Amino acid sequence: MNSRAWKWALISAPMALSVSACTGWGGYPQAKNVHDSQLIGTWRAGDCGTTLTLRPDRSASATGIPADMDLNGKITRRLSGDGTWEIHKSGAGQELDVTIGDEETPFGLYRDKGRLSVGLTVGDPDDMNWCTLTRHS
Predict the structure, then answer these.
(1) DSSP for 26-43?
(2) 8 A C-beta contact, residue 109 and residue 34
(3) What gap in Å lies between CA 90 and CA 33, rounded to an integer?
(4) Is 49 buried (19+), middle (13-18) or exposed (0-12) by CB count in 10 A?
(5) What confidence tens digit (pLDDT) does each residue in 4-18 have?
(6) Which site in 58, 66, 114, 133 is 20 to 30 Å from 85, CA atoms measured?
(7) Collapsed DSSP state (helix, strand, coil) of residue 71
(8) Quick one: signal sequence residues (predicted)?
(9) Distance CA 97, CA 89 (A)
(10) Are 105 and 21 in contact, with CB atoms under 8 Å apart?
């Protein structure tokens, strides 16, 4: 590598790291200051067959939350039923925890062009299998 290429590598590496530190799951920035009222309603993800309803009393109902995935990327187990939900701080952002039965599922809260999204990583995070839920009511 010539000296010009080395200089470019030394300059661009810190820039790339600083940009990636500002983005969260799926490249979306983590949401901050999310209030309960912004999450109340029904959230759906057609690509992963999931529906999640969050109510003001912190009760929840879910259909098809991906819980396990095999090595071929096929979902092998899903959670459905009634439960509870809560928001808590997670690093620089916030997280939505949904408990169905005795299993808690953490969802990330993100903003895509200002719109709030609820995101779930399914399986190995390195495989980038994401389930993105958007609010429908």
Answers:
(1) GGPPBP-S--HHHH-EEE
(2) yes
(3) 12
(4) middle
(5) 444 433 343 333 333
(6) 114
(7) coil
(8) 1-21
(9) 11
(10) no
Q: Which of 52-61, 66-75, 128-137 holds the top average pLDDT?
A: 52-61
Q: Which residues contact 38 (CB under 8 A, 6 or more apart)?
A: 116
* DSSP summary character for residue 24: -
CA angle 135, 38, 83 (to 5 degrees): 75
Task: Report how far residue 50's alpha carbon sits from residue 80's, in angstroms, rounded to the nearest whole number.
Answer: 9
- Report the distance separating Cα 37 and Cα 41, nearest Å: 9
**Parallel, antiparallel or unpaired: strands 59-69 and 115-121:** unpaired
Identify which has the larger pLDDT, 3 or 63. 63
pLDDT of residue 17: 32
Topology of the domain covering 24-135: Lipocalin (2.40.128)
